[in-house]
Design a protein that fits this description.
Elements (H helix, E strand, L loop, with lengths): L6 H4 L13 H16 L5 E9 L3 E9 L2 E9 L2 E2 L2 H15 L2 H28 E10 L5 E9 L16 E8 L4 E9 L3 E4 L3 E4 L4 E8 L5 E14 L3 E16 L6 H28 L2
Antiparallel strand pairs: 1-2, 1-13, 2-3, 3-4, 5-6, 6-7, 7-8, 8-11, 9-10, 10-12, 11-12, 12-13
Helix pairs in contact: 2-4, 3-5
């Protein structure tokens, strides 16, 4: 709580200015509670994860299993890995997949991060004051309630993570039927101290965008995350966070999938990407 824009962002929206029939704060509170409940549910799936940084990009195929997540690298800067790089990545993947201790540590780290994220979500209703802007209609006719938010002067951050809220304002969109947060677009209007495992300061002008949607079967997933921040770690070391992450092509996998089956699926995805890009390169060379 990632660059291609999702249908949610690019599709034409029809906005209604009619009065909202529910208190904005109550709407946000219900949606936040649903986000926390959903974070406890397991959704086993495969998907493509692509991240654009300032100076490079990388794409992974990720699979979630009941033993945790596994991933393989597909593209770096838009190009497939060389045979040597693919072998090295495959060896890394197999080693991790067959190391129970490493996977346990990863699950524990993810659990700790999920707990921090849950606290961030549960604090949203108290951290901000909300103003109704209008109701948008999404591409499938869904009702998207658009709210503006600004800091609540009475909010006392319960930890270093939520301290960032005192300097943030922006827009929040809630899917009324699903009662889920569809989009958060926040900007820092002043410098703020923060903590996410390490203390630091984020400078005015930083922003983040998170977009979620139903990817099938009532399962909601984050499909875009944009982070643009400058600051300092421990008030000494410069900090720059600049990335846009996009998650696409979600496909369900059985909850009973084995590690061997997961590795096989990831290998097939890597093979397909390598073959497709090889074909593109050959076609381009034939036209030169």
């Amino acid at each position: 709580m990632a660059t291609l824009l999702t249908v949610l962002l690019t599709a034409p929206l029809v906005r209604s200015q009619q009065k909202l029939d529910i208190d904005p704060l109550e709407l946000v509170r219900r949606a936040s509670q649903n986000e926390i409940k959903a974070s406890d549910a397991e959704h086993y799936c495969m998907f493509r994860d692509s991240i654009d940084y300032k100076d490079h990009s990388v794409s992974h195929e990720i699979i979630r299993t009941n033993q945790g997540g596994l991933w393989t690298t597909l593209l770096v800067n838009g190009k497939p890995l060389t045979p040597e790089e693919r072998q090295k990545d495959h060896d890394r993947l197999v080693k991790f997949a067959n190391n129970p201790d490493a996977r346990r540590k990863r699950r524990e780290a993810n659990k700790a991060e999920d707990q921090r994220a849950s606290l961030m979500l549960s604090s949203i209703p108290d951290a901000f004051l909300f103003t109704y802007v209008g109701t948008d209609r999404g591409p499938s006719g869904e009702e998207l309630v658009h709210l503006k938010f600004k800091p609540n002067p009475k909010f006392s951050p319960p930890n270093h993570e939520t301290a960032v809220y005192v300097g943030m304002e922006g827009d929040l969109t809630i899917d009324r039927k699903a009662m889920r947060i569809a989009k958060i677009d926040g900007t820092l209007f002043k410098d703020v101290d923060f903590g996410w495992g390490i203390l630091g300061r984020l400078y005015k002008g930083g922003k983040f965008i998170i977009v979620q949607r139903d990817v099938g079967g009532g399962n909601w997933e984050e499909v875009q995350e944009t982070l643009q921040f400058n600051g300092k770690i421990l008030m000494v070391k410069s900090l720059t966070i600049w990335s846009t992450e996009t998650m696409t092509d979600f496909r369900p996998v059985p909850s009973t999938i084995t590690t061997a089956q997961a590795l096989d699926l990831l290998q097939k995805s890597a093979d397909i990407v390598a073959e497709n890009h090889s074909g593109i390169s050959e076609a381009q060379n034939s036209h030169k």
